[in-house]
Design a protein that fits this description.
Cathepsin B, Chain A, 9 strands, DUF4872, alpha+beta, 327 residues, BtrH_N, globular, two-stranded antiparallel ribbon
Length: 327
């Protein structure tokens, strides 16, 4: 058995920030999950639907691995990422850092993992790996999935090699702090402004505050859109609250990030942005509750209510980001 020493196998709410926390704590940098999410400019929004999809997708964050790239660039970290189509090379890419005493991050499809409780394909899942033996690998996943967990080497290989939406070719990565790390406190305002700029200047109407407005128009039709409304709508609501989002489609994480920032930076626009995201987090949970009720009851009135709230959320988040952009 090969195990990296001094690993704090702490599962958090979201998969990518959980993995980042493991890797960075091992390097000596311990930041809260909201701070990791915020410094990585992780908040976003996408409404996606196409003919090939069984049901629309609501996303509340940037693309998988973009958060990691953003955080590494902002803090001056050395991010070493590997991809390969070779199963042999894929294993070597994770075994070598662990043999050298360093944990490694993996992007994979959680469907194949032995411990995963809900068997759904999601190719943007991220875990930290800190050990292996002849049969199993030792991982850190979200608290919801068990924190310190293990899965067979065979299942890990299938999860890493899976192809489909949001997958990567056996992606693995390590992070190294520089000898003289940048002050993460000094990177808070640039991270907030970059996130706000991207949210407000989204190139298509499916993204950012315009995406939320589009969702407000489309969600009221979801009973007609769904093949199995009693299953599809509650599942969508569950993913918004429990699918590694930290609640409220990542808005609770961003609210808590902004709250931490107000304790470090005295700025009226920052405090106002925090108040608006605190309001938005409550409303996103209301939306998910109404979507679930609509699926369970078949009553489209719940979706009409959700649509109204989404129109309000588009305005609230736009106002918040306009304030935060001025920091």
């Amino acid at each position: 058995m090969t195990i990296v020493k001094d690993i704090e196998a702490r599962g958090m709410h979201h998969c990518e920030t959980t993995a980042l926390g493991v890797l960075l704590r091992h390097e000596g940098l311990d930041l809260s999950e909201p701070m990791l999410f915020g410094l990585g400019s992780g908040l976003s929004f996408i409404y996606w639907d196409s003919k090939g999809m069984a049901f629309p997708f609501l996303g509340g964050r940037v693309k998988p691995f973009d958060l990691t790239r953003n955080l590494a660039a902002r803090l001056g970290l050395t991010l070493t990422a590997e991809e390969t189509t070779s199963p042999r090379k894929a294993w070597e890419n994770v075994a070598a850092p662990i043999d050298a005493g360093r944990p490694v991050g993996l992007q994979l499809d959680c469907y194949h993992l032995d411990y995963f409780r809900s068997k759904v394909h999601f190719g943007g899942h991220v875990v930290a790996m800190y050990g292996y033996d002849e049969h199993d690998v030792y991982l850190v996943d979200t608290d919801q999935q068990g924190g310190a967990v293990r899965t067979s080497r065979a299942s890990l290989a299938m999860a890493r090699a899976e192809r489909g939406p949001m997958t990567a070719r056996n992606r693995s990565f390590t992070i190294t702090l520089p000898a003289h790390p940048l002050s993460w406190q000094d990177q808070i305002i640039p991270a907030i402004k970059d996130c706000a700029d991207a949210f407000l200047a989204a190139p298509i109407a499916n993204l950012g505050h315009r995406g939320i407005e589009k969702a407000g128009k489309q969600v009221p039709r979801w009973l007609l859109r769904a093949e199995e409304p009693q299953q599809d709508l509650p599942q969508a609501a569950l993913l918004m609250e429990k699918g590694g989002t930290g609640g409220a489609l990542f808005r609770a994480l961003y609210r808590d990030f902004l709250d931490e920032c107000t304790r470090l930076i005295d700025d009226g626009n920052l405090r106002a942005g925090h108040r608006l995201y605190a309001e938005a987090a409550v409303l996103w949970t209301d939306v998910s509750t109404l979507i679930a009720k609509a699926g369970e009851s078949g009553d489209a009135g719940h979706l009409e209510q959700a649509g109204v709230i989404l129109h309000d959320l588009s305005r609230i988040e736009k106002d918040a980001m306009q304030l935060l952009r001025q920091l």
